[in-house]
Design goal:
The chain has a two-stranded antiparallel ribbon with strand order 1-2. The protein starts with a helix and ends with a strand. The protein contains 6 helices and 2 strands. Helix content is 66%, strand content 6%. By secondary structure, the chain is mainly alpha-helical. It has one domain: Four Helix Bundle (Hemerythrin (Met), subunit A).
């Protein structure tokens, strides 16, 4: 038994003994009918911003103190972790909408949708793995296209509005 599964079992047993239920994370399998690609767009903007911050980070010079090197590497590690978390979050949000909301009739109406979702998953992985700002921008572009289709399935017109966030970019929102 791995240390993680042993620790999970111990934690679950302690929670059960204390009468506290384990926290479970899910969107909603009721289904609740509440879906919105906004969070996926925000996650993609976050990936863009982290790529920008990574590119702007200046490594300390050869005569820098060890703590300056440590601070630089810690900063890069934080930026990278956040970038990876948000690339995965973007993929997750699209996966939930596609899996729980999109119907066969939607796919008939928008036959490009399955391919677009596949591209978003691949682009999310690419943006997660690297630090090329163009990859993050492409992820946002694909998610914006998905958002426009999503709102069309609800017969809701959309518009693009500036994100007013540091990385720039636009958000697709209901008009």
């Amino acid at each position: 038994m791995s240390a993680i599964s042993w620790l999970d079992r111990l934690t679950n047993a302690a929670r059960a003994a204390a009468g506290r239920p384990e926290t479970v994370y899910a969107h909603c399998d009721i289904p609740c009918g509440i879906y919105d690609p906004h969070e996926a767009q925000i996650a993609a903007l976050t990936v863009m911003r982290m790529d920008q911050l990574i590119a702007e980070a200046t490594p300390p010079g050869p005569s820098a103190k060890p703590e300056e090197h440590q601070a630089y590497h810690a900063k890069l590690a934080r930026y990278t972790a956040v970038k990876e978390q948000h690339a995965e979050k973007a993929k997750h949000e699209i996966r939930v909408i596609f899996g729980d909301y999109i119907t066969a009739d939607h796919v008939k109406q928008f036959p490009q949708l399955p391919d677009l979702v596949f591209k978003i998953f691949k682009q999310g992985s690419k943006a997660r793995q690297g630090t090329n700002l163009a990859d993050a921008e492409e992820l946002l572009k694909q998610i914006q296209e998905f958002a426009e289709i999503f709102w069309k399935t609800k017969n809701v017109p959309t518009r693009r509005t500036p994100s007013h966030q540091k990385p720039g970019g636009e958000l697709v929102v209901p008009a």
